[in-house]
Specification:
By secondary structure, this protein is α+β, with helices and mostly antiparallel strands. It is built from three helices and six strands. The radius of gyration is 14 Å and the shape is globular.
Length: 132
């Protein structure tokens, strides 16, 4: 089973609720897409900051899962920082690309860039995952 198949077979209920679709996965990069639906927006038909953060969290956690040591029980987010750069309008697709900053025995740190399909930067998220 490929790493992408592994991610797509995992039960991630909150990611599924948001409509997150994993499209690429290897040990050094995980990419997912999410349609900006009306229920993920502010009153101005722009993606809500919480939806941006939640997408990045799901992608960073998934990247950690495929990099866990064999004896690990799982992972949990212990810190996350978001720099909001721009918006994405309802109907747009946001692409989240997570790359490693640090992969240690007890923690992993991932940076996720979130962009629209036309390359407009929406946010940069850095999160720390604890290895359980």
């Amino acid at each position: 089973m490929s790493l992408l198949e592994k991610l797509n077979s995992m039960k991630m209920p909150f990611a599924e609720l948001k409509g997150v679709k994993f499209v690429e996965a290897d040990k050094d990069r995980v990419v997912a897409r999410m349609l900006v639906r009306p229920d993920l927006c502010t009153l101005q038909h722009t993606i809500h900051g919480g939806a941006i953060m939640a997408l990045a969290d799901s992608v960073g956690a998934a990247a950690t899962v495929i990099n866990l040591p064999a004896d690990a029980k799982g992972t949990t987010t212990i810190e996350s920082k978001t720099n909001f750069i721009g918006g994405a309008k309802e109907g747009a697709t946001v692409i989240a690309t997570a790359t490693p900053v640090h992969r240690g025995r007890r923690t992993q740190v991932w940076q996720t860039r979130l962009e629209t399909e036309d390359g407009k930067l929406v946010a940069v998220v850095t999160q720390t995952q604890m290895v359980l």
